[in-house]
Q: What sequence folds into this?
């Protein structure tokens, strides 16, 4: 019996199982597997997450954060059931239309979708909780940001597919990354972040938005999720549109008393955060494409690299690291 059928025995009777049809759903850059389960009446999503079964405590992040977001009226799929012993979670099927799929030539429609996305993002960023509880006990501290920078160095810079950097250049790059990480650690501005708030993690269901892939939520600058949405590796938005959406997000933050920074500081930290986030994404894409041989991720490298010159031109402290990256990855 296929593994997915075995998992379904936990949720459906023998009679129901005979009526079910199962199709694997394309996942993203994670170890989780997803299956769409069809009955004559409705559909569900079955998630097989190896981390669930091996998680050391009962407070599994996906389930903990799903409950938190639901309590705070942030739209996420309902959980039908879960079995840690089987590493499986059965959730509501909210469709397969992504925000990425809805981008069109109609600027008014795009503005509606992105305004809704920022409304939803700010609602999530408004959630407060105890600092010793998930997800408020996790943050984008310098160690986390440097871990992501080092992942990039390992898989995008040091792999033999590219000319290796000289030891001095590599040391310089790490020093610059450390300075950027420390600058971004502004704990007084921290809010809750989804952590992967891009166009492939926002479903559009009957003109409403539903967030997925939220299990890594943590505290950080409010710009982190805004960067993920507006400097997205999967969708390149018009610069004026990005500027309008930045201003809209900032106004919401101020209206909800979520930040005391002025707009110039918002834009400054947005650029630094965008640089870090895009570099982190590049590490993921190189790892997926050239280590795991998932070649579909290769197409996202060039548009992600294309963001870097804009940040470098506006923020001089990004120039040294940015130029090393561009000179290394854009060589023939």
A:
């Amino acid at each position: 019996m296929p593994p997915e059928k075995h998992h379904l025995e936990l949720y459906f009777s023998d009679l129901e199982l005979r009526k079910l049809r199962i199709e694997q759903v394309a996942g993203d850059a994670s170890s989780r597997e997803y299956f769409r389960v069809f009955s004559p009446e409705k559909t569900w999503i079955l998630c097989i997450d190896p981390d669930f079964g091996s998680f050391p405590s009962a407070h599994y992040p996906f389930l903990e954060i799903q409950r938190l977001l639901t309590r705070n009226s942030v739209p996420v799929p309902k959980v039908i059931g879960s079995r840690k012993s089987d590493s499986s979670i059965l959730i509501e099927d909210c469709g397969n239309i992504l925000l990425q799929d809805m981008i069109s030539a109609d600027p008014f429609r795009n503005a509606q979708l992105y305004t809704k996305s920022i409304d939803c993002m700010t609602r999530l960023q408004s959630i407060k909780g105890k600092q010793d509880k998930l997800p408020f006990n996790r943050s984008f501290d310098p160690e986390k940001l440097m871990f992501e920078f080092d992942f990039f160095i390992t898989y995008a810079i040091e792999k033999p597919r590219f000319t290796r950097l000289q030891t001095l250049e590599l040391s310089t790059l790490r020093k610059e990354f450390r300075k950027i990480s420390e600058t971004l650690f502004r704990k007084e501005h921290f809010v809750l972040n989804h952590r992967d708030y891009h166009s492939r993690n926002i479903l559009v269901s009957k003109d409403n938005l539903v967030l997925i892939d939220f299990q890594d939520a943590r505290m950080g600058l409010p710009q982190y999720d805004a960067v993920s949405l507006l400097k997205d590796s999967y969708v390149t938005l018009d610069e004026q549109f990005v500027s309008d959406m930045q201003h809209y997000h900032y106004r919401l933050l101020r209206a909800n008393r979520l930040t005391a920074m002025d707009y110039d500081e918002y834009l400054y930290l947005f650029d630094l955060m965008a640089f870090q986030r895009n570099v982190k994404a590049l590490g993921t894409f190189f790892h997926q494409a050239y280590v795991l041989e998932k070649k579909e991720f290769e197409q996202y490298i060039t548009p992600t690299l294309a963001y870097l010159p804009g940040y470098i031109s506006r923020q001089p402290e990004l120039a040294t690291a940015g130029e090393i990256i561009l000179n290394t990855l854009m060589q023939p």
Q: What stands out?
A: The two ends are 49 Å apart (CA to CA).
